[in-house]
Design brief:
The chain is α+β, with helices and mostly antiparallel strands and about 240 residues long. The chain has helices at about 10-15, 45-55, 120-135, 185-190, 220-235; strands spanning about 30, 75-85, 90-95, 105-110, 110-115, 140-145, 150, 155-165, 175-185, 195-200, 205-215, 215-220.
């Protein structure tokens, strides 16, 4: 991960990406990533376990240089819950409530900041997931982690990937989660569904990915972490 630098005016400019008033859909699509969809035989529990157990050499998505902001970012972790449904694997996502101070109304993975009692990023992700959506950690088979991801709100997020076997019970925390939904992993692991957009920031532009699905607009850090999952699985 590249070193973070401090820039107060830029920091304030980038905070718009976390506000409800910022509408990422107002900007034109610059490009479609366009890589071929992941082969169906790679979307199985056994293949995923093997890939995380012995990952090949692969190159993560380069972070937007505008997001390399702070010398001491707040550590956080999220869970990418891959649900083993009969018709294929799906990914559980949440829509954040509108009253939250950071990323209100945005599509996100369950997770949050690391607390002193957490023994690892994985522990943070599992604890926060239990608190936000009520998914008991005993249902989660942790496969591994993806590279840490910086956000425009000063967090450095560790994405933890896990398989989740039904049946299980979900119970959203209404103070944080407005809605829960699932997206087929096959849809997300298709470069034709990965849009590249950019917005003016300071004297330049900041780029971000979006993966619209039905009425949900997946973008920003969530889409960026999904791009890294895509790169790992297609390597």
């Amino acid at each position: 991960m590249s070193p973070f630098f401090s820039s107060a005016p830029l920091w304030r400019t980038l905070e718009v990406f976390a506000l409800a008033t910022f509408d990422p859909q107002q900007f034109p699509i610059d490009a479609i990533a366009g890589e071929a969809a992941l082969a169906i035989d790679r979307l199985t529990p056994q293949w995923l376990r093997e890939r995380f157990a012995a990952p090949p050499q692969w190159t993560p998505e380069p972070p937007d240089p505008w997001l390399q902001l702070l010398a001491a970012p707040t550590r956080a972790a999220v869970l990418l819950p891959l649900i083993l449904r009969e018709d294929g694997i799906s990914l559980l996502l949440t829509q954040r409530t509108l009253h939250l101070s950071a990323h209100p109304g945005q599509i996100a993975f369950p997770g949050g900041r690391c607390e002193p009692g957490d023994v690892s990023a994985t522990d943070t992700a599992l604890r926060e997931t239990e608190e936000e959506v009520g998914l008991d950690r005993r249902h989660v088979d942790v496969l591994g982690t993806l590279p840490d991801y910086p956000t425009g709100t000063g967090y450095l997020v560790t994405p933890v990937v896990g398989l989740v076997t039904p049946p299980f019970t979900l119970r959203a925390d209404p103070s944080e989660v407005a809605e829960m939904f699932e997206v087929p992993l096959a849809f997300l692991m298709d470069g034709l569904h990965h849009q590249r957009l950019s917005a003016p920031v300071g004297s330049g532009r900041s780029s971000f990915y979006a993966m619209p699905y039905q009425r949900f607009y997946i973008w920003g850090a969530t889409a960026g972490m999904l791009r890294n999952l895509f790169h790992l699985l297609r390597a």
